Amino acid sequence: MGTETATVDLGGRRLGGDIGGGSGRAGLARGTAVGRYQIVDRLGEGGMGVVYAAFDPELDRKVALKLLRPGREEESGRLRLLREAQAAARLSHPNVVTVHDAGLFGEQVFVALELVDGPTLRRWLGEARRPWREVLERFLAAGRGLAAAHAAGLVHRDFKPDNVLLGRDGRVKVADFGLVRPAGELVAAEGGSGGWLQGSPASPVSPPSPLEATVTREGAVVGTPAYMAPEQLRGGVADARSDQFSFCVALWEALAGERPFAGRGAAVASAIEKGDIREPEDQRTFPGWLRPVLGRGLATDPAARYPAMDDLLAALTPPAASSSAMRWRRLGTAAVVLAAAGTAAGLTLFHARQADLCGGAGAKVAGAWNGERRAALHAAFTGTGAPFAAAAATAVERGLDRYTAAWAGEHRQACEATRKRGEQSEDLLDRRMLCLDQRLGEVRALVDLFAHADRQVVERSVAALGALPPAAVCADLRALTARVPPPRDPAARARLAAFGAELSRVRALREAGKYADGLAAARRLRTRAEGLGYPPALAEALLLLGELEELAGEPGPATRTLAAAVAAAEAAGHDEVKARAAIALMGNLGQTQARFAEARPWQDFAAATLSRLAGERPGSERLAAGPGEVGGPATGRDAGLAGSRLGGGRLEADFHDRVARVLEADGRYAEALAEAERALALRRGLLGPGHPEVGSTLRATGLMLYRLGRMEEARRRFEEALGLQRVALGPDHPEVATIVDNLGTVLYSQGHLDEAVAHHRRSLALRERALGPASLPVADSLNNLGNALDNSGHYAEALASYRRSLDIRRRLLGEHHVAVAASLGNMGTVLINQRRLPEAFEYHKQALAILERTVGRDHPKAATTLHNLASNLLQQGRFREALPWAEESLAVVEKAQGPDHPYVAEELVALADVERRLGRTRQVIPRLERALAILEKESEPWSLARARFALAQALWEAADDQIDRRDRPRALRLAEGARELFRGMGELAGQDRVALAEIEAWLGARR
């Protein structure tokens, strides 16, 4: 993947779907609040509950909300629903409906579940006559969900087509775990003798949790009799083999059009007990090889069924699809044996195969990139009306010309090397050509997407092209031979080629920012990879799925998928995927989830994998600091591990870039800058000084310098990035707008307010034109414009800008997001400047509550809000209440930035101001002396001016207390120095003008 170019909100001393009304059918009215969820519509009801579509405003998503059906609020019903929530919450599997939450609504229990936007399996089967392969494919997916439940020690007990949901994107999800219970538990059934767990109806045992509670009553039918195993009907022990029986009944019914056991009520129960299976009438929809497989699953005796669900699924896999890595190895061996049968015949076969693989390179390139496709791309780009479309089209066309020319060169080189080595290199040629075909397939998929581009695709097109792995990776012989060999069997190769084409298409969706579409396709791709049995394909599919899960806002599932990708890549010998998955997992845990301690081992693991890719001995050199640390000075070489290997330098650059982002999220800005600088050096060396990825990394280093208070250096980096990206991407590209906005924030921090306002207005205009009026980048520009307007004294306009930014962020991010906290905090700041202090205090409290929930109260972002709360109380004259806020703010900043950071000095001045009002003058002076010593080294004029004036006031007041006036001349000099600093800043506005007037008044009263 290329460098991330998302907007970053730099924030000075500030913090950084409509569901309508009405009602549906009988039940809860539309808009009713159930916990935090808002009812949208009624979806249906089952034996236990009513299901609604609902909206979760916290996470900005729709969910399915299941409530115990009105009129059945007894304790057993509540326990069943809580059991469903607990059981399904134990599972995390693509083929099981995800449970998000559970709680009470009055006396009713509710469960919030993943909303699957499609029909039940029964409805799907009833819509049309389905080919048996399609039916079997969906049942196999559902069976994997059941197998996952069994692996977690759970039994569903009510599997049937009504309890399987099909998403419109192809997902298959097992649902309705309301009757689930731990494996091996006794169940009660019609006519049974009870079946209470650990007791009898007369002496029940208090259950330790809803999942373990027995809620069936003697004489009650639990489950659906037509699908129930004999042991369930008898009230015996239900285990995974009981679900296996129900699964086979449902699959038989789906294929034959009728269930295997005839009758209703007592008649069907009798047929099940006897094992009286009726044969299907239409053999066309029921392949003969399936009959004995399902017959075993329907055995009356559980011991006669398959040992586990996985064994049943393996038996149900169509013979043509039951490939495996070992089978491919055998096929490869067989090919070698055949080749060895005769020297002349072997050489003939080899040369024929070589000619087949090496011929037609030009035609292959033309199939991916030609004049017709160039014209389609250009027309699609310019047809979007995006102001940056023409420049992007030109850049992409040139890039594709260069890439395909390089690909042709690699293809030629591979064939020439094979001719020199002879038939012994046939396997190597096979591997290289498979790799080259994958690279060209990715080009083809990207061009297909470009030929139907919308604005979003055009915006990301240059970065998407830059993210293509270079064709030179296919010359890395050691890495290619480390992997499981590709199949020789033509049918297996054809399946692998089709898989590769789909993999390329999904990668193109990811790079173009089409995360929802890509995620749905990646889930299907994972299932497809599992069926191939070729380990490298599974590793690549898992990596892609994990990346898309994170990008689509599903960090928890991404964690598990990326870990699985690492394991699969290890088994496949695919070190590149293993390194990428480890890097992604480090970022997922650290940058996305702020689980920094868990991210550190993955950083170590990724570094070690990169070292091996470079050919270093394990442990000889390290990319980063000692074990357990993210970041720190590198002890290995910085010029790049693996140079041209696997695009190894780019992979290392990605590693340092992601470490930098984790460190920034952790508030460790100096270390983050060091890592970003490493990424920048690598990208400059590998990609050249004018590449867009270099521009993006330059901007990232500018951000780190800004965070460190090194404003002039930050400004130079942003200006360099701006010049580069204007040439590379065009003057109207959103990335250019981002850098203009960043420059405006630095100018604001340097006191150049008019220039800052102009930059933010320019950025806002560019973003509105390119992205529309309600995108997150537009919200960032509005926020930063508000900062500059506020400090310029244009309070009403600043407040309006902040409000619009807040509205956009709430709508797109939900109520509980760091960016929402930034907007709330900034609105509080402008209200302080308008002397609307109680209002401002409430806004800052809201911001702090969000920050506590997201990044934690000890994060540097929270320190700004703590500072503002102290300032508010100080201005209200509530000095004692202000003191703990000011002390906490100082402690947070000092811990995060170290004792000599300019932000620490600013917090020292703020705390001293509170303490001086409380009469603690002797404590104030050393605190201010320390602040002044920090700020005299490197700081912005207004910070130094305020520190000087604060110390002048303290020294003067101390002299009054002690009748010792020796410090008064120094106090006057400090105040005069502060006045000159403000005067040197040019035309002042807002708080700077107020501060200068206060200094002049103070000096005038003491002359």
Biggest β-sheet strands, sense, barrel: 6 strands, antiparallel
Uncertain residue ranges: 1-26, 178-222, 319-356, 616-647
Estimate the strand proportion. Answer: 5-15%
What's the rounded overall pLDDT mean?
Answer: 77
Q: Please give the share of residues in helix.
A: 55-70%
Distance between the termini: 66 Å
Strand order of the largest sheet: 1-2-3-4-6-5
Query: Which structural class do you get from the secondary structure elements?
Result: mainly alpha
Q: What's the shape?
A: globular
Number of strands: 10
- Provide a count of the helices: 39
Using only CA atoms, what is the Rg?
33 Å
Could you provide a short overview of the structure?
The chain has 1007 residues and is mainly α.
What does this structure look like?
This protein is mainly α and about 1000 residues long. Among the domains are: about 120-320, Transferase(Phosphotransferase) domain 1 (Transferase(Phosphotransferase), domain 1, Orthogonal Bundle), CATH 1.10.510; about 325-575, no CATH class; about 575-685, no CATH class. Helices cover about 60% and strands about 5% of the residues. The protein contains 39 helices and ten strands. The strands form three sheets. A six-stranded antiparallel β-sheet has the order 1-2-3-4-6-5, with helices on one face. Strands 7-10 form a two-stranded antiparallel sheet. A hairpin with a 2-residue loop joins strand 5 and strand 6. The chain starts with about 30 loop residues before the first strand and ends with a helix.
